[in-house]
Each structure stands twice: as structure tokens, then as C-alpha cells.
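User: I'm curious whether this sequence folds into something compact or stays loose and floppy. Could you predict its structure so I can see for myself?
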Amino acid sequence: MKKDSIREILIVAMLIFLSALCRIFTNQIGLWNFNAIGAAALFGGIVLKDKRLAYVVPLVSLFLSDVFLQCFTSIHALDRNYLGQLLFVYGAFLLITWIGTTIKKVNMLTLLLSSVGTGVLFFLISNLGTFLTTDLYPKTGAGLLACYAAGIPFYQSDNMFSSFALNGLMGNVFFTAVLFGVWTAIKQVAITPKSQLA
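Assistant: Here's the prediction. I'll summarize afterward.
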């Protein structure tokens, strides 16, 4: 099995850390949940051959973006009242990375399906965390459905980014395409050995 070169690892890590910066930027301009963090977990799982790094790099990026949001914005991502929910969020990202590690054939269809599927999976897991770790909803089947329904505000025709759940899905698909597009371009320009170019 071919190993990642140091150069490849650094480039992938840089792309994933830039994804974390996108999360901060999109939240600051009001595009709530339209971010690249889920796409970064999927990307790391697919691209990094060292599976320890595939899990560590996206999680560290998520944590650093949470620290930044906590310290420098009005978003209290690491507030102790939300720590139970964070376990579900971070667990969902570990699961998304694992899904990425299982994908053997990478093409546009598998990337589209996996980005949509993992976006839905993240929504289901993170809202389950909200249901289980807060007192916002009664601990009944109806309470769980109410929790999921609250995560899908009705789409407003005058604002394409009005749905928190839809933003997560659109962000996952968009940033998966961006990450893999940029990665493909970088590989062709900066990583392909010179002997293959001759």
C-alpha cells in the first residue's frame, strides 16, 4: 500500500484547516451551517492513506474552529451547556471520516452520494444529540420528531439559505466538490512526479 508523502499530508491538512476557516467565515456572514467541516471529514477519510491522520486532522480542525468561535465570536461552540451535544457532533464527524475510509472508487457519483448521505447522517445524529442531552423536547417519539422538525425550518422563497438543515446539506455537497477539485488540481501541478510529466 502506498503511503502519503509528507508533502501530500501537509497539503491535505492545509485544505482541511482552510475548511475550518470557511466555517468561521460563513457563520459570520449569516450562512448558518453552510460550511466545509463535514466535507473535510469525508475528504480526509478518502484521501489520507494514514487512517490515524484521516481521523485526527479533521477533528483537530473542527476543535480549533470551535475554540475560535468560542473565544472571538458570539457563538459559544464550547459552552459547557452544550458539551453533551458536542459528543454527538464529534462522533458524527468520526463516523463521516470512517465512511470516507471505506470508499474505494472515487468518482463524481460516489462523491455526490457520499456528501449527500453524510450530510443527512450528520443532521440525524446531531439532532439526536440535542434531543437526548437537553430538556428542549419531551423524551418521547413525538419529542424526537419535534426536534428533527425544528432543525428543518421551512424554506423561504426569498432566502435560499434560510434552512439550517438544507444549508448543511448544500455546504457538504459544495465543499466536497471544492475540496476534491482543488486536490485534483494540486496533485496535477505540484505532486505528480516530474518523470510522469516527461
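Summary: DSSP finds eight helices and no strands in the chain. The mean pLDDT is 86.
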